[in-house]
Amino acid sequence: MKKDIILCGVGGQGILSIATIIGEASTEAGLYLKQAEVHGMSQRGGDVQSNLRLSTDPIWSDLIPLGETNVIISMEPMEALRYLPYLSKQGTIVTSSKPFVNIPNYPEESELMAELDSMPSVVKLDIESVAKDAGNARGANMVLLGMAAPYIEILSVEQLRKAISVIFARKGEAVVEANLKAFDCGVAASQA
Amino acid sequence: MTKKLLLGDEAIALGAIHAGLSGVYAYPGTPSTEITEFIQGNALAKERGIHSHWSTNEKTAMEAALGMSYAGKRALVCMKHVGMNVCADAFINSAITGVNGGLIVLAADDPSMHSSQNEQDSRFYGKFAMIPVFEPSNQQEAYDMMSTAFDLSEKLKEPVLMRIVTRLAHSRAAVEVKEPKKENNFCPATDNAHWVLLPGNAKRNYNDLIGKQGAMQEASEQSAYNKLESRVDGKKLGVIACGIGYNYVREAIGDSMNVLKVSQYPLPAKAIEQLATMSDALLVVEDGQPVVEEDVKALLGKGYTVKGRLTGDLPRTGELTPDSVGAALGKESSIAYSTAKNLAGRPPQLCQGCGHRDVYGALREIIDEYPDARVFGDIGCYTLGALPPFKALASCVDMGASITMAKGAADAGLRPAIAVIGDSTFTHSGMTGLLDAINENSSITVIISDNLTTGMTGGQDSAGTNKYEAICLGLGMNPDHLHVVTPLPKNIPAIAQLIRDEIAYEGVSVIIPRRECIQTAARHARERKSAAK
Lengths: 192, 533
Prior knowledge:
Strand order of the largest sheet of chain A: 2-3-1-4-5-6
Oligomer: heterodimer
Mean pLDDT of chain B: 97
CATH architecture of the largest domain in chain B: 3-Layer(aba) Sandwich
Largest sheet of chain B: 6 strands, mixed
Low-confidence stretches of chain B: none
Order of helices and strands of chain A: EHEEEHEHEHHHH
Distance between the termini of chain B: 38 Å
Number of helices of chain B: 22
Number of helices of chain A: 7
Largest sheet of chain A: 6 strands, mixed
Strand order of the largest sheet of chain B: 2-3-4-6-5-11
Shape of chain B: globular
CATH topology of chain A: Pyruvate-ferredoxin Oxidoreductase, domain 3
Strand content of chain A: 15-25%
CATH class of chain A: Alpha Beta
Distance between the termini of chain A: 26 Å
Number of strands of chain B: 18
Radius of gyration of chain B: 25 Å
Number of domains of chain B: 3
Structural class of chain A: alpha/beta
CATH superfamily of the largest domain in chain B: Thiamin diphosphate (ThDP)-binding fold, Pyr/PP domains
């Protein structure tokens, strides 16, 4: 089995933490993994993305070819649309529904949402509100990971939960619990 | 056997430490920065006291690394591709002196210019200096090659160039790591004739270098990293796949073609001739410029078809992708959805609250008031001042060019000529230009926007922190025209007034707006908080 995932958002939204957790879970599960990140200039309020490739067999390219992405996981709705040419025909978009507007020419929100909704498989949610309601305002990225978890398939929800515990362990039990709670809210929302 | 999930940069760093590295020398530059940062944070490197302090620029780094090699130790010098231009004098001449301890020069190229101003291919520098070049195809090779490259460097007594690209530098994969080797013993060189490049010595050394070319060629022909993979019969298209290009080829065609994987140079000419005999044409897949394509054409002669970037079978510019390589190899794209309609570009921008913003707030006023004013920019976060809402910059060329271009334009009569340069860029390559301007009393206004760090690459130490006034005075600045201000929104009118006053002065003025980078300030606050716990 092979799963190609694009993680995306705006610089500073915490997509690399999601990548780290999926990376940890994949390593623990003995999967092959390649994860191409963007560092440097584009981190400052610009669009950022990471290509994550998980497989039971060796992986060649660090980059995902056009039309072969199984899941786009996005912290921002317009950023989810940026990678449409990379999405496979049966692919799923899991995204925050709340625009992050830091440019003057951001598209009309209703049209943006309509275009997203026109895609065959979309899961979207106001992850910031869900995180806030769960008492972890900074945990929006964990809510998003939870939403995406059922679509990652090559890793189980339980394997991802365990990776969250490992990654946040050095920050203390309270931080681990808060992030797990945010993650669980995302899983529940996705399956609702 | 231990497996670690590592960035390409980290694999190089750990590979170097485990190969017995004694010192890394570098100036931060995307996509090479993480190599030195990894060594700075590595426990074994700390225990061994491996040198990892940042250098002021790539030339000082290269020379210090050569000095460590002179003393018998293994040294690594890292930079982004354009850093090779800065250290080129030392780099080329290190091939003439040769080395004592192993010396690896690592250049991280940036095809597609994700964070750079050009796509120059460092493999040209390897040819230019006539030394071996390694180009890993993946993270594991990046790790393994460090040991091989140090060994080869010591065997040939020559520096070795390691060339990577952004997609390897910043991509993670599992790497099997080995037991660390010991460092070399301290053992300074004694053969002065080799190290003193007076013409008489240099001529002899140059002949030595030419004499070693056969051994370098043989090392490439025998290298485990160069491999002719013969899989199919019948004369069809054969592929020469260099560095990470190999991965895109395998992604596209699996086992269905004959492929020569190239990760060590000089080019393995025998293997190329063998592949050519087996094939009816060759496709060269290489990230960066068509270095190999040109050489293969020359090797095989006019009658043989060699395809690549020069022939348009692959794009002439930009990094390779699995899609461009797949198309060149006849793979059908599985693209299902076209580009979205509701999409806008989201360029990077200066952080909210950043001091550079307030500097540009003041400069914008000046530009609006003086239609002939030109602001010559430089390399750093503050290059973003070229974009809206500021649109303040007339130029951005290379490290340090703001001051010297302003000087040249002022020499030609341009007024007001303003330079904007960051603190780290100033010590990297701005100081000498300022000395030129001071010596000629050029009519320029220099703004050293000091955020106490090397911001764009993630907040590394800046060589001149707390020394800028002293440096300027030492270079001969008139103290009456040297000012330090605090860039805050409330101070914009006062800063603009100061710039007005100084551009009226026919001579060199330096204004230093100083406020810590908000990213490093936040990080330092977190560190203080956790230290207090």
